[in-house]
Amino acid sequence: MKKTKISEIKVFAPATAANLACGFDVFGLALAAPGDFVQMRLNNSHAIRILKISGDHGMLSMNPDENTVSVSVRALLDKLEIKQGFDIILRKKMPLGSGMGSSAASAVAGVFAANQLLGQPFSKTELVRFAMEGERIACGSAHADNVGPSMLGGICLVRSNDPLDIISLPVPPQLFVVLVHPHINVLTRDSRAVLPAAVPLKAATSQWANTAAFVAGLFNNDYSLIGKSVVDHVAEPHRARLIPGFDEVKKAALENGALACSISGSGPSVFALVKGEAGCQKLARAMRKGFSSLNIGSEVYISRVNKKGVSIV
Amino acid sequence: MKKTKISEIKVFAPATAANLACGFDVFGLALAAPGDFVQMRLNNSHAIRILKISGDHGMLSMNPDENTVSVSVRALLDKLEIKQGFDIILRKKMPLGSGMGSSAASAVAGVFAANQLLGQPFSKTELVRFAMEGERIACGSAHADNVGPSMLGGICLVRSNDPLDIISLPVPPQLFVVLVHPHINVLTRDSRAVLPAAVPLKAATSQWANTAAFVAGLFNNDYSLIGKSVVDHVAEPHRARLIPGFDEVKKAALENGALACSISGSGPSVFALVKGEAGCQKLARAMRKGFSSLNIGSEVYISRVNKKGVSIV
């Protein structure tokens, strides 16, 4: 169904928490905020131009061949085999290198905006693979655990990246996410490097029992089971060493009512899952204190799971 | 709630297929048949006596300290801190050492029968841990992936053996199981020995993506997703070598409409999951042919998933 073309659009793509402890490289969920805003308009050249980037502290390239937002749009155009120019303004309203899916949000916002301006030739699900090309230049591999939930919203299971198979999971109504971003730098490269090449069979078995149990917990609105299953025997023991204060922050979260607490993506952000909104502020303060006691500043984001995903502003 | 005591009972505990490919050590399902029959009555001594065992070709011990059926009953009595004698007749109507949960079925039948004769002090779920003591003497470790479904019926996820945490999963209405038992011997010891001590991270990640997807498939009655997710990157590649003809049997199953096909438990039985009953007979013939072409005899069991589990006959 071809829609009427518009010439300019502004969209928002949310931040995401990937892995969710047990589901290394396979689970991700979308936050209500923060996220990236992309303003895009058709131009009469055949060039994709990045006019402006704000909120990145000068860290991102304005070169359209090097920026995730434009590379993703180019992948979309290549698939359509058309030439079309776009002018892009990217407003990053979320931290980079935070483990919150910053590059994914930009890519998702880019392809979603371009798809709207082109009359929606693709569904959201189809757009995921173009946004994954943005992940490829940002992270070295085309994976969907952040792109999927930023695009589709909700909680996603990436069963396979190639061929792409994403399953949307149910979101229990009382599930809240508290995400604390500490002001430290952890390079994705380093957090990949500390991972073991192989997982002891026993730890691996626990992990696949827990991913299965997490899904059952989501379908059954079983918050207790969600809490028990969102644990990580594989990546967290290694990556926690890269995040000063992680053990204290996690302890504080669990002592203050969190169902579960672990590293968001490759870190350094730390997320907690919570049943109900009531205790979230107190929980967030306790988690931040774990960092501030080491003189590490942080900001916190409290939200329901964002079931909508990327959207027009 | 204490029920009226009866002095004699006959029960049936079904065979089970554990692992279900992706879920090594964590998934299991119950078959309608075959299974074990146990006849039990209270006696006036304090002794647990095995009066007779049939169908075991003389392979099982009549010594109550060495037989899974009696050891499990003793674990139950120890928990109650009572002394009570039982006379037990065990009729094995299923093959031993087949990867169909033979020792688990005997243990489940034993504790379920004893619990009935004692006025049901325990729920079925509570009985699982006693039956696991039978598994401990039969296999060396107390695991629940066969005991769970034989007791509770349906498809079980054993999230953890200790502390025990079993989750009953939904059973899609059109799901059928074709299980072929080839007449070859594979020792559980050997099928454990071929397993690697560690799993490459990439294979492990696929595995926990697939256990999660399998659960989503069961909740959504998504047979296609069930088929895609019931694959095994961890145990099957190693254990298949112990089963002559496995590759041909699996190929035959998939070519004849199976959603998925893999090794039942530690083998040598091979199971296929099928949507609908219509094609099961043809599928079963094709699978058996894979064995018979190597002059290996087999028998086949076709059934829905048994949602009832152990029951009074």
Secondary structure elements and their pairing?
2 copies of one chain form a homodimer.
Chain A lengths: L7 E11 L8 E17 L4 E7 L13 H13 L4 E8 L9 H16 L6 H16 L7 H6 L2 E7 L2 E6 L5 E8 L5 H6 L4 E3 H19 L3 H7 L6 H4 L6 H10 L4 E4 L6 E6 L4 H13 L5 E7 L6 E2 L1
Parallel strand pairs in A: 3-4
Antiparallel strand pairs in A: 1-2, 1-12, 2-4, 2-5, 5-6, 7-10, 7-11, 9-10
Short structural summary:
Two copies of one chain form a homodimer. Chain A has 313 residues and is of the alpha+beta class. Chain A contains ten helices and twelve strands.
Radius of gyration of chain A: 19 Å
Count of individual domains of chain A? 2
The number of distinct helices of chain A, counting runs of at least 4 residues, comes to: 10
Multimeric organization: homodimer
Descriptors:
homodimer; 313 residues; alpha+beta; Ribosomal Protein S5, domain 2; Alpha-Beta Plaits; four-stranded antiparallel β-sheet; 12 strands; 27% strand
Describe the protein.
The structure is a homodimer of 313-residue chains. The first copy, chain A, is of the alpha+beta class and 313 residues long. Chain A has two domains: 8-169 and 308-312, 2-Layer Sandwich (Ribosomal Protein S5, domain 2), CATH 3.30.230; 175-304, Alpha-Beta Plaits (2-Layer Sandwich). The first copy, chain A, contains ten helices and twelve strands. In chain A, strands 1, 2, 3, 4, 5, 6 and 12 form a seven-stranded mixed sheet that branches. In chain A, strands 9-10-7-11 form a four-stranded antiparallel sheet, with helices on both faces. In chain A, helix 1 packs across helix 3, helix 6 (201-219) runs antiparallel to helix 7 (223-229) and helix 9 runs antiparallel to helix 10. The A-B interface holds A 22-27, 157-160, 165, 167, 169, 195-201, 204-216, 219, 225, 228-229, 234 and B 22-27, 157-160, 165, 167, 169, 195-201, 204-216, 219, 225, 228-229, 234. Strand 8 (198-200) of chain A pairs antiparallel with strand 8 (198-200) of chain B.
